[in-house]
Design brief:
Blueprint: H1 2-6, E1 9-15, H2 22-34, H3 40-48, H4 54-67, H5 71-87, E2 90-97, H6 109-121, E3 127-129, H7 143-148, E4 159-169, H8 174-186, E5 192-198, H9 206-218, E6 222-227, H10 233-242, E7 246-249, H11 255-264, E8 268-270, H12 272-277, H13 289-294, E9 299-301, H14 313-324, H15 328-337, H16 346-363
Parallel strand pairs: 1-2, 2-4, 3-4, 4-5, 5-6, 6-7, 7-8, 8-9
Helix pairs in contact: 2-3, 5-6, 8-9, 10-11
This protein binds N6-methyladenosine-5'-monophosphate.
Length: 364
Amino acid sequence: MEWWMSMPKVELHAHLNGSIRDSTLLELARALGDKGLIDFSQVEHVILKNDRSLTEVFKLFDVIHILTTDHMTVTRIAKEVVEDFASENVVYLELRTTPKKNDSQGMSKRSYVEAVLEGIRSVSSVDVALIPYTEDHRNLLDPLCSATNDKCNGDGRKKIFVRLLLSIDRRETTEAAMETVKLALEMRHLGVVGIDLSGNPKVGEWKTYLPALKFAREQGLFVTLHCGEVPNSKEIQDMLDFLPQRIGHACFFEEEHWRKLKSTNIPVEICLTSNIRTLSVPSIDAHHFVDLYNAKLPVVLCTDDSGVFSTSLSNEYKVAASSFGLGRKQTFELSKNAVEFIFSDNVVKDELREIFNSAAKNLE
Ligand code: 6MZ
């Protein structure tokens, strides 16, 4: 595991509330239990249960959301999630989260995202580069850093790039989806780079989100879609026709969908453990990653929900290596290739390529 840990990595599909440490969830549940607001032992059982169907996963998210309703907790989990990814040498993280309005907490979608950003900024175990280059010249490539340490700032500290995607939940209306897109546009200068469509794939209809997604794209936001998590041929086709910059999962694709995907070269965010746990693919041997990888189509390994599925990005690379017979060099190349699919500009890509090149030298 050590090798997978030490390799630089890029995480492009991680849901904030799915990536919370179990210890934090239990602590939050105990506090609410002590106040008599929830039944702690029941919630503890739900949190610690290991195998869950896709439907049960969404029930768990409803429980998690009850535990993370106030601004302070949102800030705390954002901080911890970034620290956890940084501690396993993730050098670029695109974190996604659904902005939530909660009148009882005085929370608006905007104040929710502000709380997330505050958490990301408050990370102290590692330097966080959150603001796009054009906004913060201090992030510019530091030659001292490249010369000395592959993943650090000039002062020898480790560094992680973090960008935020705002998620539209499939339960939302067109208006609510549009509100999220407008918020993303207003918060671009703070590190928000794109929009994700996620949530229970058995709920909602593509036409509901389309106006907001179209608007997002017209305004230059990046868009990624959860696509084909359940069998829904028409929706998969509509999503591919939309030409998003990336898609997540692609589990229930049919021949025509693979053809379209190949012709468009849309990168696929692959979440192995998540797909196996939710039975979205029958077994790891049958996972579509192999065909995509062998066909040299753009793929990136991701965690999805490291907390909910008890995984880490290092573990996802380890699983891929052991399940599909990839050597270290191949896994390293897979990790490095992810840089090409990030929702950031060429300056960031160049710096990341530099990090990987210098790590490759150390591996020789
Ligand atoms: C679809 C998922 C998901 O946004 O509250 N989410 N949506 N498929 C998945 N695969 C298992 N995993 C997570 O994080 C939790 C939310 O992310 C989405 C769901 O909408 C979930 O409620 P945030 O930070």
